[in-house]
Amino acid sequence: MDIFEALFTRRSIRSFTAEGVSEEDLDMVLRAAMAAPSAHNSQPWHFVVVRDEEVRKAVAARHPYAKMAADAPVVIVVCANPAECKEEGFWQQDCSAALENILLAARGKNLGTVWCGMHPMEDRVEPVREILGIPAGINILGLVVMGHPAQPFRKVDRYKAEKIHFDRW
Amino acid sequence: MDIFEALFTRRSIRSFTAEGVSEEDLDMVLRAAMAAPSAHNSQPWHFVVVRDEEVRKAVAARHPYAKMAADAPVVIVVCANPAECKEEGFWQQDCSAALENILLAARGKNLGTVWCGMHPMEDRVEPVREILGIPAGINILGLVVMGHPAQPFRKVDRYKAEKIHFDRW
After folding, report:
1. Which of A78, A80, B100, B161 is the most exposed place for a label (fewest CB within 10 A)?
2. Which residues between 83 and 142 in chain B have a beta carbon less than 8 angstroms from any beta carbon of chain A?
3. From CA A8, how far away is CA B34, in angstroms rounded?
4. Which tens digits make up the pLDDT trace of B87-111?
5. Torsion (CA) A91, A45, A24, A75 in degrees, nearest 10
6. For residue B22, with 0-12 CB atoms within 10 Å meaning exposed, 13-18 middle and 19 or more buried, which class applies?
7. What Rg value do the Cα atoms of chain A yield, rounded?
8. What are the distances in angstroms from CA A76 to CA A65, A88, A143?
9. What part of B 19-78 touches A (C-beta under 8 Å)?
10. Does ipTM exceed 0.95?
11. Do B35 and A99 touch (CB under 8 A)?
């Protein structure tokens, strides 16, 4: 798939078919995540891939905007280990770049995704930490629900000229 | 260009030719930025596009890792207006997704880029705010230096199996 088709037809998919995600597609998506840039190339990200239905249902029950995690075949929770950061303060940016790569790589495989925000909302982070056994020192950015879409991809135009400033604000 | 070629051959480019960036390519890159997801679809991002050489040189002189901004034809500073956020706490993630889209769209046009981090380092944010006249209430995430590369793109393998956890940490 062309890079621009992927960029311009990616949208949040919240409804999924019963079809599973292949190991090959999942591997490609995770490789894409790790191809992201990071501050000082420190790559502090970690990925908890949840296929287990009971675990997905537990996550869905505790995150207010991730109900679809119960029915989609895969959930990926994107974390960072601060001990792997060469400079503090950039882990959110590193993990967000990796997460965006997940969404685009999934689109390239015709998989649907939705990014469910967690950090800095403690009431979304801590239940997922408990369910997945993520250690206290590990940061949790957010999660992606992924599967074969039961709703269409389509081009969404979010362009707004007034967001662009030339040479100064 | 295939989405996976873009994802896997994007790397930081810090050396640029004298060739300028066309209006068409710049427009496509900015459209890609605004195609990113954002929390509650609030799209709080703003982009200051700097082509003026004197302004680029001023930025290069004040950011410790953006010396190449003096010689590349375009710098894009990625900002967020908190007043446009529907929920606080997600602007860094929104802007990082937009910034990653800039890097990938540029790769799709054979333009080189490097992401120079700024937030939360006040000594990098405030000088650029002053130079570009960015109001005090506007957040500044980071900047992208962009141009035609004077060094090759190549596949970089950052894959580490130990970063992947299955069903729990």
Report:
1. B161
2. 89-90, 92-93, 96-97, 99-101, 103-105, 107-108, 115, 117, 119-121, 131-135, 138, 141-142
3. 9
4. 999 999 999 999 999 999 999 999 9
5. -80
6. exposed
7. 16
8. 15, 24, 5
9. 28, 30-32, 34-37, 39, 43, 45-52, 55
10. yes
11. no
Give the span between the Cα atoms of B140 and B117, in whole angstroms. Answer: 10
Q: Per DSSP, what are the bridge partners of residue A164? A: B47
- CA gap A146, A23 in Å, rounded: 13
Sign of the alpha-carbon torsion through A63, A116, A16, A50: negative
Q: What does the domain layout of chain B look like in residue ranges?
A: 13-150
Which of the listed CATH numbers 3.20.20.70, 3.20.20.80, 3.40.109.10, 3.40.50.2000 matches domain B13-150?
A: 3.40.109.10
Provide the CA A75 distance to its chain's centre, in angstroms.
9
pLDDT digits (tens, 9 = 90+) for A50-88: 999 999 999 999 999 999 999 999 999 999 999 999 999
Query: Residue A92 and residue B117: Cα distance in Å, rounded?
Result: 12
DSSP B12: B
Residue B149, chain A, CB below 8 Å: the answer is no
What are the backbone dihedrals phi and psi of residue A154, each rounded to the nearest 5 degrees, phi first?
Answer: -160, 160
- Class of CATH domain A17-149: alpha beta
